[in-house]
Amino acid sequence: MGLYPFFRVIESDQDTMVTIKGKKVLMFGSNSYMGLTNHPKIKEACIKAIEKYGSGCAGSRFLNGTLDIHIELERKLAEYVHKDAALVFSTGFQVNLGVIPTVTGRNDYILIDELDHASIIEATRLSFAKVLKFRHNDMHSLENQLKRCEPGKIKLIVVDGIYSMEGDIANLPGIVKLAEKYEATIMVDDAHAIGVIGEHGSGTASHFGLTDKIDLIMGTFSKSLASLGGFIASDFDTINYMKHHSRSLIFSASITPASAAAVLTAIDIIKAEPERIVKLWEVTHYTIDNFKRMGFDIGKSETPIIPLYIRDNLKTLKLTRMLLDEGVFVNPVVSPAVNKDSTLIRFSLMATHTKAQVDIALEKFDKLGKKLGIIH
C-alpha cells in the first residue's frame, strides 16, 4: 500500500529540517530536545577527543576500556543530577538491563508502571524478582501492589520520568509518599526528562524537589545530550556494587571518546544557555494550545512529547505518509506497540524549532486531519 513508515533514510544532520531523498523536510520526530546534535562546540569536542584517544576503546570499562574522560563524565553527571556518583553504560537500554536485575534478587519485587519503556520491561525479564504492574500514574493501583509485597524484601518501583509516548510526567510526589510508607526503593528513568525539566534540565526528581528521595536516577545521552550512551546515578556504595556486578556494563565495550566528549560539552551548553529550555517550553505550550484548538486528542501530554491520538492503524499510517509527502516528518505508533484503539502520531519538539516551522506543520495537520476525518 506504500504506507510502510519505518527506516526512512535521512541524508543530513538531525536538525529541525532534514533531507530525505534530496528533499527538505521539517523534522518533528526527533528526540533532540535541546537541538544540540549539530552544535559547533560539540562537533569540535568530538574531533578533539578522537585526535587524543582515537575512535574507540576496544574493550569494556571493567578491563581496558576506562579512560580519564569517562571518569570526568561520571563526575559531571553525578554533580548534574545531584547524586554521589554515576556510572556510564554504552546505551540507555543497557543501563536498565544492567541495573534492574542487579539490585533485585529472587525474593524481591519490581513494581512497574504499565506504560514504562520497553527497556524496563526487558530488564524485569532478566531478574528473578516478582514483577508487579500498576495502572499508569495511578497511586491507588501502586499502593494495592505494594500491599502484596512481603515486608523486609526489596521493593523497587521503576517509572519513566517523562513517558516517551504519552508525554506526561510521573507522579513522583505520590510515589515518594508510598515508597516511604512501604519502605520501597525508587528508580526513575529520565531518558526523556534530562534537558527538559528540573534545574538546568537535570530531570524529574529536581523538577519536584525530591532528589534526596529518589534512590536511582537513570538517563540517556541520545536525546538532549546529543550523543550515545546512558548512565545511572546513586550513592557511592550502590554505584560501586554496579561496577562489579552489572553484566551489561562488564561485558559491553565502553562508549567512544567522542561520545563522552559530546555529553560533557552538551551539559556545559545547557547550563550556560538556559534560554534553550525556555524556548523549548515556549514552543511546546504554543503547539499544545494549537493542537487542542484544532480538535486533536493529545491525551494528558504536558511536555515537548505530544501524542496525537488517531485510534486507527490505517489512518495513522496514511496521515504519516501524507505528512511526509507534504514535507513534515513525524513518527507513527501503531499496534502491536499499542492497542488498535490507542494508535497515535508522536509529535516532538526541539528548542531550535521556530513558531513559523510549527505553524507550517499545524497547517498540514489541520488540512490532512480533516481530509481523513480525524478532526472536523
How big is the Rg?
21 Å
Low-confidence segments, ≥5 residues, pLDDT <50? Answer: none
Mean pLDDT: 97
Beta strands, count: 13
Q: How does this model look, in words?
A:
- With 376 residues, the protein is α/β, with parallel strands linked by helices.
- Helix content is 41%, strand content 16%.
- The chain contains 13 helices and 13 strands.
- The protein has helices at residues 40-53, 68-81, 92-103, 118-126, 139-147, 172-182, 204-208, 236-245, 247-250, 257-272, 275-294, 313-325, 355-371, and strands spanning 17-20, 23-27, 85-89, 109-113, 130-134, 155-160, 185-189, 216-220, 230-234, 305-309, 328-329, 331-333, 344-348.
- It has a seven-stranded mixed β-sheet with strand order 3-9-8-7-6-4-5, with helices on both faces.
- Strand 1 (17-20) and strand 2 (23-27) form a beta hairpin.
- Helix 1 packs antiparallel against helix 10 (257-272), helix 3 runs parallel beside helix 4 and helix 11 (275-294) packs parallel to helix 13.
- The longest helix has 20 residues, at 275-294.
- The model has no long low-confidence stretch (mean pLDDT 97).
Short description:
The chain is an alpha/beta fold. The protein has helices spanning 40-53, 68-81, 92-103, 118-126, 139-147, 172-182, 204-208, 236-245, 247-250, 257-272, 275-294, 313-325, 355-371; strands at residues 17-20, 23-27, 85-89, 109-113, 130-134, 155-160, 185-189, 216-220, 230-234, 305-309, 328-329, 331-333, 344-348.
